[in-house]
Fold this sequence. Notes:
There is one protein chain. The chain is mainly alpha-helical. Helices cover 77% and strands 0% of the residues. The protein contains 10 helices and no strands. The radius of gyration is 20 Å and the shape is globular. The mean pLDDT is 94.
Amino acid sequence: MTEVKRSYDASRRREQARARRLAVVLAARDLFERDGYRPTTIAAIAAHAGVSAESVYKGFGTKAALAKAVFDIALAGDDEPVPVAERPAMQAIRDEPDVRRKIAMFTEGLAGRQARSAGVQILIRDGRHVDDSLAPVWAKLTDEGLTGMTMLGRHLLQTGQLREGIDLEEVRDTLWNYLAIDHYERLVLAQGWPLQRYTQWLAHAITSAICP
């Protein structure tokens, strides 16, 4: 009985710690969006989340690390500890036999992820020019994106359905180019394109670039 109670207590503590962590990330997101990155302090984030500043420092270390955590949750749409590449939507892309359909499925997911994460991506991208702490965060986002597009590019290339003579480097770089938040910022945020139109444009642009 004692062992069962101890196991239950440990599980409950983990759930509580996860809930507190999520509250801090969501508080950071709210304040970054409302006040901007530089004016927002760890103390303000802690107060907004209802926790101590010490616990925020202990859990995240820096405000820049918090910005990365905000991005990660916005990208995934939740705080489940499962990489985007290992989620059911990406598995469905791998299972789909037709490469054009794969690209359409990918761009549908990409547009949704960009819609959720645009605010924090732009904050990190632009903020690194005035706050050096964000530079390595942006570099990590860039590296993670390139790694992901390398994996997807290799998968698409292995179907044998892409344009003759195209190599992994070109497929990867094409995908990585359209992964950039700049396209979403200009067409959706600035020009007011509906998300569906933007999604269709993405699919057409990528398909035209790498398919016969």
